[in-house]
């Protein structure tokens, strides 16, 4: 394992340790409110509150999977057989979060459409109180998860779920207030539909991002042709081929390439310049570059960072 990889793995481990306390706090807080919302929704007949409780359940499950992935990744870093640790676990957790949240959203939409024909009476008072508590819990969880969402797709999945749930709680509060003031029962399924349609596009984007990593597609923010042209412009490089760029996990782009040298070029200088170009122009810290000699024999070698 190379020094660059060790450095990145240490950084990921430190980041995981830094955010695990916040994750645990959000996990406990949302678990308690989820149970309160679900019980109140069943007692009052509110589909909007039930959808919010279901959404909060995916928050809790998503954060739990995030914690499990972080723990497993950190432990795997000490296993010499796992040369890349278990970085992909966080991507799998993010994909599972997207699938679960999509399922909840679809269920709420179907149930809401069914209720439009005969909206049941909803006890607005208890719904309003519990939804307000849920809003406060989501605001706290949102603040706890926001810093880690910039560093990890796994944490970003939990963060997006809490953000959507926060907005959902606002919708439930509005529906309960409207029912209490006007007796307009259709407000409950309407808010449920709004929550479902808000959730789906965001979860599909998260799932798409996770799938891109799992199928080892090139990162969306990088143009492979630009990477190719930049390497080809390195002094001493005659040709670039077998270039591959992919994402191993959040914030860790990886590249491999074969560089054919011009006659008389120094392999060490070419490797140093190529490494600098990848790091400074594309933020690629981990690359495997195979040097292929030009006219001089014995210049072939491979260096991994």
Please name the defining characteristics of this protein.
305 residues, alpha+beta, Alpha-lytic protease prodomain-like, Alpha-Beta Plaits, 2 domains, 8 helices, 4 strands, 69% helix, disordered N terminus, disordered C terminus
Would you kindly provide a written description of the structure presented here, covering whatever features stand out?
This protein has 305 residues and is an alpha+beta fold. The chain folds into two domains: 3-214, Alpha-lytic protease prodomain-like, CATH 1.20.1510.10; 224-304, 2-Layer Sandwich (Alpha-Beta Plaits). It has helices at 3-44, 47-76, 88-116, 124-149, 153-182, 187-214, 224-232, 267-282; strands at 237-249, 252-261, 286-292, 301-304. It has a four-stranded mixed beta sheet.
- Give the fraction of residues assigned to helices: 55-70%
Low-confidence parts: 1-16, 295-305
* Total helical elements: 8
Shape: elongated
Provide a brief overview of the structure.
One of its GO terms (molecular function) is zinc ion transmembrane transporter activity. It comes from Micromonospora radicis. With 305 residues, the protein is α+β, with helices and mostly antiparallel strands.
Write the layout of secondary structure elements.
Elements: H1 3-44, H2 47-76, H3 88-116, H4 124-149, H5 153-182, H6 187-214, H7 224-232, E1 237-249, E2 252-261, H8 267-282, E3 286-292, E4 301-304
Parallel strand pairs: 2-3
Antiparallel strand pairs: 1-2, 3-4
